[in-house]
Design goal:
The protein is mostly helical and about 70 residues long. The chain has a domain at about 25-74. It is about 95% helix and about 0% strand. It has one helix spanning about 1-74. It is rod-shaped, with a radius of gyration of 32 Å. The N and C termini lie far apart (about 105 Å).
Amino acid sequence: MTGTIAVIMVFSIPIIAILTAHFQKQNKIKYKMIQGELELEKLKHQNYLIETERMRLELEHMKLEEPKDNIKLG
């Protein structure tokens, strides 16, 4: 009985080490994936702000051009 317990103890230590290393690698991969997603969301937000500003400027430009068009037609 003591021999069986000793064998189980000897083999359980490397198995636990392998499992721990595996879970650490998985966590590192998840961390990198989340970092990538966060960077993508930052870029999407930055793009949204730039596009919104561009649309605002285009609308403002159109409003400034509109009175000139009315003068030419009238």
